[in-house]
Amino acid sequence: MVTAYGAGLEGGTTGTACEFVVNTSKAGPGALALTIDGPSKVKMDCVECPEGYKVTYTPMAPGNYLISIRYGGPYHIVGSPFKAKITGSKLVSSHSNHETSSVMVDPVTRQVSSSHQGAPSQSDASCVTAKGLGLSKGFIGQKNNFSVDCSKAGRNMLLVGVDGPRVPCEEVLVKHLGNRVYNISYQLKEKGEYILVVKWGEQHIPGSPYHITV
Predict the structure, then answer these.
(1) What is the distance between the alpha carbons of residues 117 and 126, in angstroms, rounded to a whole number?
(2) What is the pLDDT of residues 5-59, one digit of tens each?
(3) Closest C-alpha to 24, from 57, 67, 69, 71
(4) If we measure between CA atoms, which residue out of 31, 24, 103 comes closest to residue 73?
(5) Pseudo-torsion of CA 159, 138, 195, 213, nearest 10°?
(6) What secondary structure letter does DSSP report for 116?
(7) For residues 122 and 117, what is the distance between their CA atoms, to the nearest angstrom?
(8) Which residues pair with residue 174 across a beta bridge?
(9) Backbone phi, then psi, for 124, in 5-degree steps?
């Protein structure tokens, strides 16, 4: 049973280190994987402590950060993902409002490997390809389609979301055609600018997020 606690799981201030503890004392050996999704990349450190691991991260932009904690495989610990609300001023000039930072701790070597991509080695979102008119243009009242080929990207989950000017997309359908090739269709109710996000696990695929004009 792995648990996590600390003020850093609930919130903090930009430019200030936020801290929390992952308690692995009641669990057997396993790899710890941490991913933080939010408005900015974060500087993340993970050190051993008597309970397990002490984690600090420093956010650089205000907003909501999603903290995913996995232990011993692909499964989230209890309460994960946690949502931390960060306040303060924006300390970086980034055009992206969605960044992913991650760190993995291998219990065999106690080696900490940090990356800003956020996925285990058996999954590689950069190998995913997407094509179709639905990636760039949408039409009201009909199904807009595109396909995603994840056959060369290892094992993971395909996550698709469409957000609109005022409300999210009415319907998104993901159909697995076999061999990790998917067909996605979505329907829209109003004109405007939409954002389409396609992720393979924790990582955006090349080109995501897409901007769709209706």
Answers:
(1) 10
(2) 999 999 999 999 999 999 998 887 788 899 999 999 898 889 888 898 999 999 9
(3) 71
(4) 31
(5) 160
(6) S
(7) 13
(8) 184
(9) -140, 100
Walk me through the domains of the chain, giving residue ranges and CATH numbers: 3-105 (2.60.40.10), 125-213 (2.60.40.10)
This prediction has a pTM of 0.51
103 burial type by CB count under 10 A (0-12 exposed, 13-18 middle, 19+ buried): buried
Token pair for residue 21?
A: 């503890």
Q: Where are the alpha helices (DSSP H) in the chain?
A: none
State the pLDDT at residue 109.
42
Collapsing DSSP to helix, strand or coil, 127 comes out as helix
d(CA 209, CA 49): 38
- Determine the average pLDDT of the residues in 124-150: 90
Q: Read off the pLDDT of residues 155-198 as tens digits, 9 standing for 90 and up.
A: 888 888 888 877 767 778 888 888 889 999 998 888 888 888 89
